[in-house]
Amino acid sequence: MSDKQAKVALVTGGARRIGAELVRTLHGAGYRVAIHYRSSASAAQSLADELNGTRPDTAMLLMADLMDPEAPARLIEQTLAGMGRLDLLVNNASAFYPTPLGEITHEQVDELFASNARAPLFLAQAAADSLRRNHGAILNLVDIYADRPLPEYLPYCMAKAALVALTYGLARALGPEVRVNAIAPGNIIWSENMEKAETPEIIVERTALQRQGSPQALAKAALFLLDQGDYVTGQVLRVDGGRWLFI
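^ thats the sequence. predicted structure below, dont judge the formating
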């Protein structure tokens, strides 16, 4: 199959961290990629240039704020217009920050739910016809704390719990043509400073593998669920080094 006919994956929040690793992994597996970003324009452009330098015209950029209710449908339309098809949807974009009880605001809840739950729902709805036609797949990035929320991160954990429920519901609604799964990451190493819900000491004491995970480990699991696990749907795969065992 030529690059112009290759399958297409849309990855939200694809410019940095897990998203960028997912994009690179899917592109390396032969997919063309639509890279969504909100404010990381420079990182997104660098990533697209890198991938297009390897295989010309196989990466495109899409800028949108997922707080905008019209953004999901527009992202699907732009992907189809630019790439001609859509086979995989990866809901990776995620707002994440602490919200101590007693200080939680309506604006924080709206922001956390917009990227972590509402946008994935409307992206899936807008992409459903294309995904059915191509017997595609959806992957949602959830969290090991969706089931047992962290007290300092209640709205975030609530939103991820909603995304787990959406995963199960979409697997039924879009089957048999479309498979829908989720990955629940544990503590992952970043190449930049980012808010962490756990300390290094907790990772050693309460994780079976006694170390942080890598974006590459998540991307390998994602590639299996998206591209290889053709009899797997409605599942949440924990990629957490055994952290769940100690929660």
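The chain has one domain: 3-246.
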